[in-house]
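Researcher: Quick sanity check before group meeting.
Model: Go ahead. Protein one:
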Amino acid sequence: MKGIYLLIIGLEKEMIKEVGSLGDVMFQRGNYIYIGSAQNSLEARVARHMSSQKKKHWHIDYFLEEAEIKEVLAFELGSDKECELAQMLDNKFTRVWDFGCSDCSCDSHLFFTEKDLGELLDSIFEEIDVEPIKGSELEIQ
């Protein structure tokens, strides 16, 4: 499968973490949404994110050393929709500046909230009018 995915991530305690070229980044305790794209094998990309045994390549790899993926949502959309969806998230959540967007003109691909994610994600799904595929439905090996 190819498409766009959202990682729903929980962070139990506030932290400052060195994140590659971004340097030290302050992360608040709460919930995060990361948006990514995988136009070859979305399942393999998600499996990589979920693995604890990986070389740090992307900003999200540093964050996931301390944070926990709670849910994965995937959409069969082209890569051109990744930044469009990031803009929608930017309008609803607090951005973590410059995170995960070094290959585009977005301000961020990681967003923070202290609120319950279920209700907020439902409103995003309504806006993009595409049903998500839950992580449990993906064929992740």
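Researcher: Fine. The other one?
Model: Protein two, sequence then structure:
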Amino acid sequence: MKTAKSPKKSKHRGLVAAVVLLALIALGLADSRFRIAVTEYELYYDNLPASFDGYRIVQLSDLHMALLDEGGEKLIKIVEERRPDIIVLTGDFLNMRSTQTEGTQTEALRPFLTKLRAVAPCYFVSGNHEWASGEIAQLGTMLDELDIVYLQNEDVLLEKADESIVLAGVEDPNGPADMIKPDEFAENLAQLYPEKFILLLAHRNDWLEKYPNLPVDLILCGHAHGGIIRLPVVGGVFGTNMDLFPKYDAGIYSEGKYDMVLSRGLGGYMSVPRF
């Protein structure tokens, strides 16, 4: 008789396990969708001017039109609490072209970017989705109206107490075919500013694969979405090209001539939801 009852108990346990697993997945998806995680890195450089010691940079990446309810107030508050000297926006704030009226996404971003610019000076570089959105021209115009600097293979000097560092930004490869190549752009910067600390903003996460010896000190980038599906210990499971276990998914990488800080990003666009 005992052996006859055991299959029922086994099925019961299996059902409970399945329900618990589904509940954990649902909680994980909700957490991935609504919780904003802040990761803070402290980096040290011998060639960083003394007046920039403690300089605070907030990086936002891969928004993908998410977190914009009530003008993105929740995200704005978190940024304010970090007390940044500057805010850098490393692409994919828009999504690919949709059936919406052209310019709709750009205008939906305006309230959030207006509030963000009130916190600190902002600098933007394009991602692949900006170019695929069909709204890159409108976005550029709006950024100019809001006094947000759009770095299009360009550089500016950040100054503090009579000292300065170079902040440069590269266009995403989806940009114009005839634009300067990233390695050539970086070499030009190194020649123009041979003694200065160079911080490069970019969108893609393949710098250490393509250009491990760029003459810059630090690259801030995104694009990887933290691996889209991310598991404890394992890390990122899928790259944005749906490659398995991407090498560069999140965090600090220092295996090249420079450091690369890779953001996990804020939103998600892929058919596979963030987890």
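Researcher: One line on it for the slide.
Model: Residues 254 and 260 are 6 Å apart (CA to CA).
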